[in-house]
Design a protein that fits this description.
mainly beta; single chain
């Protein structure tokens, strides 16, 4: 059981880092939450940008970088899908990497 503030609404994606000590969840509420699985608590909350109509971006999936310090996230908005990188070491900076013609079903991250 994890202690801490949960998502408001459904969880859209979940990833666990290779050490098994961190998990990240993305929710309908427009947040990505980082969880410390060893201590079973929420570690940090990151807010995703909103689309032009004010709605939270829909997260299709997320994937930890092998270092556990970044997440690769595919978001879906009114203007299409976008690949973004969330960098925990940089204070949770979120930068767009690429616009996607269609959702990606298989990716590698190194």
């Amino acid at each position: 059981r994890l202690d801490g503030r949960m998502h408001a609404g459904a969880v859209l994606g979940l990833a666990v880092d290779k050490s098994g000590q961190l998990a990240a969840s993305a929710g309908e509420d427009g947040t990505v939450r980082l969880w410390n699985l060893k201590q079973q608590v929420a570690a940090e909350v990151f807010y995703l940008p909103r689309s032009e109509d004010g709605k939270a971006l829909h997260v299709r999936w997320l994937l930890f970088h092998p270092t556990g310090k970044r997440l690769l996230i595919e978001t879906e908005g009114r203007t299409g899908n976008e690949l973004r990188q969330l960098d925990f070491a940089q204070g949770g900076s979120l930068r767009p990497l690429a616009r996607l013609a269609a959702s990606q079903h298989s990716v590698g991250y190194s």
